[in-house]
Design brief:
Chain lengths: 287, 274
């Protein structure tokens, strides 16, 4: 009887999460594109051979990992600082929390458009300020320089998701009893030492959950890049999710698109495992 | 004293970092095209409402997208709560080992980057003819929101005293009555936080809406905004874009201000217990 109440949820979750993955696995072993008249014909792993030799896929995998690593590390450090700040008592703390959460609540596409304007050259505010202070600079070309464009997407991503991570870490901070700090102070420890000896070790599960969650989300980055740079310049900011999207919707090659998605998923799990092991390793070295 | 000053400075920096991009959009939305090109020079005609006029006179008018997004948000929130409250209840009543395993599964599913699902979901939409239908769009949204919703609500149910339900059972209330009169009123705060987080998710969702909806008058706000961005890469009318982003942000800023407590408690509960 009780299990009946769970049934609709189980059905919907299987339908939305599991069926697609099985479908992708099946499609990745078939040719299904305009060429085959959108019919799925078995092609005996040809999609996977193509993937291994596809420079664009590996370039996007590298770009996605680079983007995810840099933005998640920046977010964790910044969010920790913000959480420490918001954990203190001061006037108008509630309103400051709301203000700092605003970037997270707004639709990604809306603010991606905003950031595109901010980094616009030569009319965006950053460019204009640069020109104002140093008239030698013609234009910074943030969004049209392949070496810099991806950094601008990291800035926008950090701006948008740091508040969320800060909130999770703040929740963790509030579970640490004050007596611990008090005892540490009586033993003669300084405030800075308390952060490294008490706060960070006790916050570990919260760091871990934020890192895993953010890593997974950053790995699937799509809206932000699509609107800010469209994957350009010269494909330098294209993410794996975008490449899969382009293959499905523009080239109408569903078999290959599915292969990319399965491969991205495998890479994500691998990246997650590696970062988990690294965190554990560093923890053992430090403590 | 210096420490206090340092803290105030950091708070100020935090506020500036959070809202400067928003303020800049607001400023841009009132600028005339000439003012946009040379922000630091003296121009006769600097301020204008033309950008807003342009956005509202577009076809379909911009408020249409706000209505569409709100509708999808309301449908999604309703369906999600309807399914997740009973599911959360039964999760609490299940034997501990099964419950723990299901929680682990739910957590890992909640972490999944759902963007990767868009193609298979699009195939659903095509084969069942669900495209261009806002109610149908809320089905995948509900499915995506379910894991988090069930985790949040079940942790609220777990916190209730166990005797309460026993007492109601002895008084002869059946399952439905216990739900209606005991359980739901007591977990209302958790349901409210969950509802708002689900609403925000569906309001902001992009890849699925992008592939399921193709009719102009049914687009949701994020897709409409992205379409503006893609319409032309060169000579982009940024004033009008800025006006559109401002209009698109206002409802969310209002929601944030009204429901700040629920949002914060919902997110932190999710982190502590999930």
């Amino acid at each position: 009887m009780i299990i009946l109440l769970l049934l609709p949820a189980i059905v919907l979750i299987i339908l939305i999460f599991c069926v697609p993955l099985i479908r992708y696995l099946w499609l990745s072993l078939h040719a299904s594109s305009v060429v085959t008249g959108l019919e799925a014909l078995p092609n005996y792993g040809a999609n996977w051979f193509r993937l291994i030799n596809d420079d664009r896929f590996w370039q996007d995998a590298l770009q996605t990992s680079r983007f995810a690593t840099l933005s998640v590390s920046l977010e964790i450090v910044l969010a920790f600082a913000i959480a420490l700040l918001l954990d203190q008592r001061f006037r108008a703390r509630g309103s400051i929390r709301v203000i700092s959460l605003l970037p997270w609540a707004l639709p990604t596409t809306v603010m991606a458009l905003g950031w595109r304007w901010i980094f616009n050259s030569p009319y965006g505010p950053i460019d204009q300020l640069l020109i104002l202070f140093n008239s030698n600079i013609e234009s910074s070309n943030f969004l049209s320089n392949p070496d810099i464009a991806w950094i601008t997407t990291v800035v926008a991503d950090v701006w948008k998701t740091t508040p969320f991570v800060a909130l999770i870490l703040l929740a963790g901070l509030q579970t640490i009893p004050n007596d611990l700090y008090e005892a540490f102070r009586l033993e003669g420890g300084t405030k800075r030492q308390a952060i490294f000896r008490i706060t960070i070790p006790l916050l570990k599960p919260y760091f871990l959950i934020s890192i895993i969650f953010r890593l997974a989300q950053a790995f699937g980055v799509f809206d932000l890049i699509q609107v800010m740079t469209g994957g350009g310049p010269a494909g330098s900011t294209e993410s794996l999710a975008m490449y899969a999207y382009i293959n499905a919707m523009r080239f109408l090659d569903f078999g290959y698109s599915s292969t990319i998605m399965i491969a991205s998923f495998i890479l994500l799990v691998a990246a997650g495992t590696i970062s988990f092991l690294l965190i554990n390793f560093f923890r053992k070295v430090i403590y | 004293m210096t420490e206090l000053n340092r803290r105030n400075t950091t708070i100020l920096l935090l506020i500036l970092w959070s809202i400067t991009p928003l303020i800049w959009q607001l400023y841009t939305s009132f600028c005339s095209p000439e003012a946009l090109i040379s922000p630091f020079e003296n121009i006769a005609k600097r301020w204008t409402l033309d950008n807003y006029r342009q956005v509202f006179q577009a076809d379909p008018p911009f408020w249409r997208y706000l209505v569409n997004s709100s509708l999808v948000g309301i449908y999604t929130t309703f369906i999600t709560l309807l399914i997740s409250i009973p599911a959360a209840y039964s999760l609490v009543k299940l034997p501990r080992r099964i419950a723990n395993v299901s929680k682990l599964v739910l957590t890992s599913v909640a972490l999944f980057p759902y963007v990767l699902l868009f193609l298979a979901l699009l195939e659903f939409a095509r084969s069942l003819n669900l495209g261009n239908n806002l109610l149908a769009l809320s089905i995948p949204y509900s499915g995506l929101s379910l894991p988090l919703a069930i985790l949040l609500i079940s942790s609220a149910i777990k916190d209730l005293p166990a005797d309460l339900e026993e007492a109601a059972k002895i008084d002869g209330l059946n399952l439905w009555q216990r739900f209606r009169w005991i359980l739901v009123p007591l977990i209302a705060p958790a349901c409210a936080s969950t509802a708002i987080i689900v609403f925000l998710f569906s309001w902001n969702e992009y890849p699925i809406a992008l592939t399921w909806i193709s009719k102009d008058e049914l687009l949701t706000l994020p897709v409409a905004i992205a379409r503006l961005a893609g319409s032309s890469v060169y000579s982009v009318p940024y004033g009008a874009y800025a006006a559109a982003t401002v209009i698109g942000s206002i409802p969310l800023i209002i929601i944030m201000i009204i429901f700040q407590k629920q949002i914060v408690s919902g997110l932190t509960q999710g982190a502590v217990k999930g």
